[in-house]
User: Fold these one by one.
Assistant:
Number 1:
Amino acid sequence: MVQVTSRPDETVEGAGPVTGPSPAPDAAGLGRARAAGFLVPSMVLILLFLVVPAAWTIYLGVTNYRLTGLAAANPEVVGLENYTRALSDERFRNSLVLTLQFVLGSAVIGQACLGFAIAYALRDRRGPLRRVVEAFILLAWILPSSVVAFLWIALLDRDAGTLNALLGMPGMAWLLDYPMLSIIIFNTWRGTAFSMMLYAAALENVPRSHLETARLAGASTGQQLRDVVFPRIRGHVLTNLLLISLWTFNDFSPFLITAGGPEQRSEILAVYVYKVALSGGELGFGAAISFIMLLINLVIALIYLRMLGRRKERA
Amino acid sequence: MAAITLRELTKVYPNGVRALDALDLEIADGEFFALLGPSGCGKTTLLRTIAGLELSSGGSVRIGDRDVTSLPPGQRDVAMVFQDYALFPHMTVRDNIAYPLRIKKVGKADRQDKAARTADELGLSALLDRRPGQLSGGQQQRVALARAMACHPQVFLLDEPLSNLDARLRLEARTFLKRLQRELGVTTVFVTHDQAEALALADRIAVMEGGRIRQVGTPTEVFRRPANTFVAGFIGSTPMNLVPARVRGDELAVAAVRLPVPEDVRGELTDGEQVVYGVRPEYLDYSPEPASGALTGQVVVVENLGSFSLVSLDVPAEEPDAGATTSVQVVVPEGREPEPGDTGWVTPRPGRSLIYRDGELIGSTAEAAVPAPRTGVGADA
Amino acid sequence: MSTVTPTADETRTEPSRVAVRDVLARIGRYVFLCVVLAFFALPLLWLATAPFDDTPTIAASLPQFTLDNFRALLDNPYAMTSLLNSVWLAGGTALLVVTFAALAAYALSRVRVPGRDALLYGLLLLSSIVTGTATMVPLFELAFRLNLIDSRLGVILILTGGLLPAAIFILKDFMDATPTSYEESARVFGASPLQIMRHIVVPVVRPGLATVGVWAVANVWGNFLVPFLLLRGPDKAPAAVIMYTLYTEGGQADLRLLSTFSLLYSLPVALMFVFVSSRYGFRFHGGIKR
């Protein structure tokens, strides 16, 4: 995290002797008091509804708090019991593996690769084809999740689904036989728009002259991508991977399609927590799993940020 | 309209940088005054401190008979034109020009009328309903000037007024600006890093370095008699030749020849003293034949600059280290350029030689009474 | 059309081979784009056909055109209310997010606060983690203790808290891109901070405010989890939750109701997208360079 915080505007100060006027500390004559006042509403809400819940998760995770019953009134601190229970729980481990499959399959491979391929294929295209392709991809992204969930249920329906009708294989129960594959493809469909737009913006930053230099030197498309395009957009790639990995990791919408089933075969962690904590009422245990999820999120973030930092050092 | 008086003006940034170091400066009523210096010398900070956008850490700023040191910018009765003009992109030219009047609670009809008249004076009438984004750089500058004029301030402050224009437009805008200032007669302070711009526009110039003023004077003074080697090197489109020299009785040992010590400083030098001999390339005469009292060396580079050429010679350095050379540049009029490899002689014109001790000019910076036709080369970059 | 189809070694190979490869690359690109188009369009087809079909099935098919299905929608007690609920939630949240984020972003952009970037990145990271499902337990708890269960205000506040860090981040980018000379210029003319805010800053960053507003509306409009967790009865439930109950509860789903409701519920965000993309161009303009 430390690396990313060194944005250019911070390095201006104290760079060598007098370097012109240092950027105005207070261009609008706002004053510290008023500036602090401007910050207060946001900070209160963020503190209350982001920071406090995150901290609370840690506390709840060491209690046997339940939604109903005796432990609802008097939760007891049970130490790390929830954690040891989670780590030895087959269902949790299964869920963790499924989540990693989900992130790797739908975010890293699905959204990022497909998004880049589309952005690259459309990069210097104008006109109706580009607009239509982009419009559909964006629609998939912006439509409400409960609507698209039903669209996919309808698409994949065993008896009358459009897909089976098209493929001519009625009776194929996609959601029952291939639940993970279904939600991975669903999430790829759902989220590719973000990666596509981000890469489209990134590709515009690759100077044409660099690509032309590579082509004059006789580089193939693959070599151009490797030697010219990727080094220029590495920061975008990492940022994109970081964001979509986190989003996908915490995504709840597969619940709307498979509800974790059949037999927990698509029960990713987000769904697992919901079932354990809110359907099952084991709030303490659920919080412990939530906290493990937070930690994994943090690890994902740190790995990407480290890679991003290394890039900056080399630059 | 008013004079500006700065006393002991100091600005220290929180990070310890002294952007202004106890400046004293008087800018006369109606004067067109330039703050000139390399980037980071504090000139923009000084301008912004006069405007009130930066608060000084010490000293005082007076505009006319008011002490404005701790007044907010809006109460100082100044107008500022920013380097990027800062025209509000969402307002038309009319609304931009009328904006200061809107703040001063002038009625809508009145201020629009006033804006239209000001725009008319600057030839902007046809553009009143456009947005800044639809204007050329030169037009934007005029709108910014019109907006500054609209509220009749006592002082105009211009930050790098010409730097955002392309080269050709810049000359045109320079002439326009000088004429406008003459006509309005408002005390005007402008910041520039371009010495040619300062020489061409200003009545007087303050040359700044490292938060201090190194010289204040008319363009002629700072050009002909720079107070120190910093100013000497900064002013002029070709920097002054600065050659190490040693005093030998009534003569100076400069680059292996002996030159007479200039009359005005004769009494102030001691024998054997190490000094720096300075003379502008414009004030040297080149000759292909040996001449007395001339530096001699080999021509290495000839740069054609249009009506004249800049010729660089390698002259042998002063006695001790034989073999070492110093570069001396001389301006040669068209048609008389030597070829690289030629041997040439350069003779300083009388009264144009300057002697610096520890970087400071010996003698007065006031113009010596030696008539010398100005070549006009210096101000033309 | 495609002038930059990469032709690897055109300096070495003879023209005909280059031309062939050029054509192949172009065909490959078209085929790829058509497959992509089919993949993304296929699931959406049903949404376009079923609402107008007098006997909608679960498969997309050419409809027997009718508008009768929309009557079923009006007959359903919760359908229209839920859309109204969604409007309340989305509008309220967007208003709070834009107002608070604009104030905070302006302060952070213009006044030097030590550690402000670290703070912002930390919050952004936290928000992308916490708004997900990981904190549903404490959020539920918190809402319970603050008496915000089954309250629209609770949903609005929680959603606002989750969206604020990213909104501040986006808006700060816009504010940072606005030259301070605008405000300084206004200050020299004597404008007060509030006048500067009203006359200069808000109009100049209006595209940013619109972007964040639209983004917040879209987010809340589609958000299922928070209202699903916090709102009890169907009378307060927004469309996202009602939509879900329509196809999970009560045996055989009424496809006529479901399809028309889906369409009506999707339409606002789709229209908003069309509006934004025609007005501002729906892409990142280098804003994401973290």
Number 2:
Amino acid sequence: MAGFISFLENRVMPVAGRIAEQKHLQAIRDGIILTMPLLIVGSLFLIIGFIPIPGYSEFMSGIFGDQWLTKLLYPVNATFDIMALIVSFGVAYRLAEKYKVDPLSAGAISVASFLLATPYKTMFTPEGATAAQEVGGVIPVALMGSQGLFVAMLLAVLSTEIYRKIIQKKIVITMPAGVPPAVSRSFVALIPASAVLLVVWLLRILLENTPFESIHNIVSDLLVGPLSSLGSSLIGAIVCVLLVHLLWAIGLHGAAIVGGIMSPIWLTLMDQNRAAFQANPNADLPNVITTQFFDLWIYAGGSGATLALVVIMLFRARSEQMKNISRLSIGPGLFNINEPVTFGMPIVMNPLLIIPFVLAPVVLVIVSYLAMSLGWVAKPSGVAVPWTTPVIISGYLATGGKISGSVLQLVNFVISLLIYYPFFRLWDKQKLAEEQSHAASDQVVNM
Amino acid sequence: MNILLCCAAGMSTSLLVQKMEQAAREKGLEAKIWAVSADEVKQHIDQAQVLLLGPQVRYKLAEMKKVGEARGIPVDVISPVDYGSLNGKKVLEFALRLKQ
């Protein structure tokens, strides 16, 4: 076990560090964070729209008219449905910041290139017609949301790379002295902007002559398709959870590192569920694995599902040290923050406690995945519940108001309790013995 | 004395902030102590005199040191033991030592 820990520390940590430091991945992660507050606000409206009380819908239309739901969901359309547009700006902005070039221009150019890659047409079925017709002159909303997420990310990176290379090579328009700096700045942005748009334009023209027809189609067929089938699979989820907890085992924030890479995929899966849920709250949703699957059903109390551990500790600890840790940990633990446990107990670098810490989440992933895919428990509805929401409440909200979501959290709590219990007893006994021998030797010294 | 703390989301370090503020009051020390997420450090570092990282984001030390050194601000990682036990007094003393 000691050899394994030193392997993690010496081999895995530098790699994890390099991945977490990688400029583009960092910019993508930070850019995606920009959408989170919007998604949470959009979720609020989604929850109010689908409160699962019999007669609620009739009650609301009685007061606000038949169109109440459509009107209530306006903010959802302006948050979830423009995710890609926000990401397009955010990723470019964050990347430009890292290169110390003007982030605002980079963001604007990135949005323009994202729209340049998007055909301004959509399919529309007029009233009375049987077949859908192609309608031009519209920005397709579908591609502004999660469906366009990867294109937005990729083009943000591409356009910002071109932008900063040109700026850094100083191929810019220099204005004579006396021209106000703001004016010369606007000219400076011209050359890079035209280079970026030229490249994206050529790319689009080129792809229009292939069977893919558009940048969106090629990315969705070759990249998003395979990535999301990998990300939505049980094996994919187990691998992610293993990695997260092995990183935590050496005291690194595994969820931040792995989530940084996986979040575009999980977000896409989450939004697919949201769209299906919004169309019919009782539909069988397409995905089990979403951002919320991990945050709310696996990481109860924080990474490692440590809420159960803290509760055992609170009631059964005999050593003073564990009693103290449990009192420090229970408050934050209810809101899924567990650093006092991971570093205080400690679990980090502790060969004994790492075993249940890694085992419990893996078991929970398997149990939750099966329960949801067999239809015993409602799948996450795409409602973006913040990860700090306490369990039971969060399971109910995230499934769009289904009790089964909370029940699974209870079951998961019991499972993690059983897994942690024997290891906790061993550790507590060891600490108690240490304390008693300290007390004994203190007495000797005092005599 | 302005002490900036950072971790992945600024959540668990904010627990420590409370304990450090308490320790500073007991010492009669005038201190501004606050916690932010690792992504927000750049917006806050100009008001800080010391930057401390939670041990779970110690893989960011090299990057943060670069940010800090450019401004002459010492940067280091909080000891996991003091972090886990939320020992505000010890972490405060650590920050004061770094500043010297």
